[in-house]
Design brief:
Elements lengths: L7 E6 L4 E8 L19 H11 L8 H8 L4 H8 L20 H4 L9 H8 L21 E5 L5 E5 L6 H15 L7 E5 L2 E7 L6 E5 H4 L11 H11 L4 H18 L10 E5 L5 E3 L39 H5 L16 H9 L7 H34 L13
Antiparallel strand pairs: 1-2, 3-4, 4-6, 5-6, 7-8, 8-9
Helix pairs in contact: 6-11, 8-9, 11-12
Length: 407
C-alpha cells in the first residue's frame, strides 16, 4: 500500500520472515523504487526482501542487541512485521490480506500518536519496557542512537546522539553554513534527551511527500566506469522525472558543502529525492545528516587538509582510494555560492563548538585553524577550475576588468 492506494500484492512467510514471490501489480508507477529489477518496476521475491529488510533498524544500531535480548524479540524482522512497515519517511505499508479493516488514516504515524517507549529503550541501550512496537523507530535507518518524538504542537521530531559527542554540533554547524550559502538543507538545533546531547530536526516531508533514498535509486543505475558515477546518478534521477539541471545543482551543493566541512559519510542513503505521492513529481532532498564532519573524533595533531576517502562518488569499486579532491573537482557551477561568505565559517564553527563543554578548547582551535587554511585552498581550486572558462571567454574579444573577470 502507498497511503490508501493498493500498489501490489506479494506472498510472505511469517515464520521465515521473507517474501516468497510477487503477485498482482495494481499500480506500477508506485512500486517502491527499491524493489525495481533491471531498472523496471517488476519486483521479484528477492527484490521485495531487499526492500523490506532495508526498512528495518540495522543490526549495527547502537544498543539494539540489548533491547532485543531483554524484550524477547528475536530479530528486527519481527519488529517490522509488528509495525506493518509503517514509517515517517514515506507512505508505504503492508496490509495483511485478511485485514481490510485497516485504513491509512487510522494507523499512519504522521497524524496518529505512537508509543515512544521503544525509542527511549533504544536510546539508552536496553530495557524490557519497550511498550507497543508499532512506532516509527522500528523503521529508522542508521547506526547512531536516535528516536522519534511528538512535540506538544504535534510536530514529529528526530533526536539523534553521537559517539564522539561532536556529531550533534556538526549537524547544527552544517545547517548554519548551508543557510549562509543559500543551500537547501534541514534545520538542526541542539537538545537534551535522557542525559545526552542530541541534534533535533523536524520532519522534512509534507503531507503528500515521501523520500526516495539514493540507495534505492541505485536500482536504476546504468553500467559505466567509476569516473561516470555522478552522470550515472543524474541519469537515474532523470528517469524518475527529475529536472537534470536542478538535480545537478543539488549535487554540486552537497559536494561543495561536504568538502568545505570535510564530511566523510555522504553515502547513498544520506541524500536522495523527495517525491509527491499524488503527482509523482520529484525534487532534490535538502541536505541532512552531516554529523561526520569537521575531523570528527580525530586527534588535533592529525587534523589537516590532505586528501581523504569521501562519498558517494568513488574512483574505485570499494572506496579504498582517497578521492575527496577528485570528487570536489566534479563541481560544474561555481556561480552558485558567494565564496566571500566563507570568511564567516570559522566563527560559526567556533561559536557552536564552544557551547559543548565536552569538546576541549584545543580541539576547537585546531578545527577552526585548519578550516581557515581549507577556505584558502577552496578558493584556489575554484580559481583553477574557472580559469579555462575565463580564458575561453576572453578569446572572443572581452576585455578583463580589474578583478580579472570579463566586463
Amino acid at each position: 500500500m502507498c497511503g490508501d492506494r493498493p500498489v501490489m500484492e506479494f506472498e510472505y512467510s511469517r515464520s521465515g520472515g521473507y517474501a516468497l514471490r510477487a503477485g498482482t501489480i495494481h499500480d506500477p508507477a508506485r512500486v517502491p523504487v527499491g524493489m525495481w529489477v533491471d531498472s523496471k518496476p517488476e519486483p521479484t521475491g528477492e527484490s521485495i526482501n531487499r526492500w523490506w529488510r532495508s526498512r528495518g533498524i540495522p543490526a549495527t544500531r547502537d544498543g539494539l542487541g540489548a533491547v532485543l535480548a531483554m524484550s524477547g524479540i528475536a530479530t528486527t524482522a519481527d519488529l517490522l512485521d509488528r509495525c506493518l512497515g509503517l514509517s515517517l519517511s514515506d507512505r508505504y505499508w503492508v496490509r495483511p490480506i485478511d485485514r481490510d479493516d485497516l485504513e491509512w488514516s487510522n494507523i499512519n504515524f504522521f497524524h496518529n500518536a505512537f508509543d515512544e517507549r521503544l525509542g527511549r529503550s533504544l536510546f539508552q541501550g536496553g530495557s524490557s519496557h519497550i511498550g507497543d512496537v508499532n512506532t516509527p523507530d522500528v523503521t529508522s535507518a542508521g547506526d547512531l542512537p536516535k528516536r522519534w518524538i511528538i512535540q506538544p504542537d504535534g510536530t514529529r521530531s528526530l533526536l539523534k546522539a553521537g559517539r564522539t559527542g561532536q556529531e550533534p554540533d556538526n549537524e547544527v554547524i552544517a545547517s548554519r553554513v548551508a543557510r549562509l550559502l543559500g543551500i537547501g538543507h534541514v534545520e538542526y538545533r541542539i537538545g537534551r534527551a535522557q542525559g545526552r546531547r542530541v541534534s533535533v530536526c523536524d520532519e522534512m516531508l509534507g503531507d503528500d511527500e515521501e523520500i526516495i533514498p539514493g540507495g534505492q535509486i541505485m536500482s536504476l543505475f546504468r553500467e559505466g566506469p567509476n569516473a561516470e558515477r555522478k552522470e550515472i546518478w543524474l541519469d537515474a534521477c532523470e528517469r524518475l522525472g527529475a529536472d537534470r539541471g536542478i538535480e545537478e545543482g543539488a549535487v554540486d551543493d552537497f559536494l561543495f558543502l561536504d568538502f568545505l566541512l570535510r564530511d566523510t559519510d555522504r553515502h547513498y542513503n544520506n541524500f536522495g529525492l523527495i517525491r509527491n505521492v499524488d503527482t509523482l513529481a520529484v525534487r532534490p532532498a535538502p541536505i541532512f545528516d552531516s554529523g561526520e564532519s569537521l575531523w570528527n573524533g580525530m586527534d588535533p595533531d592529525l587534523m589537516d587538509n590532505t586528501d581523504y576517502k569521501a562519498k558517494p562518488f568513488w574512483v574505485d569499486d570499494w572506496g579504498d582510494r582517497e578521492n575527496a579532491f577528485w570528487q570536489f573537482d566534479l563541481i560544474r557551477d561555481w556561480d552558485r555560492w558567494d565564496l566571500s561568505l566563507l570568511d564567516e565559517v570559522p566563527g560559526i564553527i567556533h561559536d557552536q563548538l564552544a557551547t559543548n563543554r565536552r569538546i576541549a578548547p584545543a580541539v576547537t582551535d585546531a578545527i577552526t585553524g585548519t578550516m581557515k587554511e581549507r577556505i584558502g585552498m577552496i578558493r584556489e581550486r575554484r580559481d583553477a577550475a574557472t580559469a579555462p572558462l575565463l580564458a575561453n571567454t576572453l578569446r572572443f574579444g572581452d576585455e578583463p576588468s580589474e578583478t580579472g573577470r570579463p566586463r
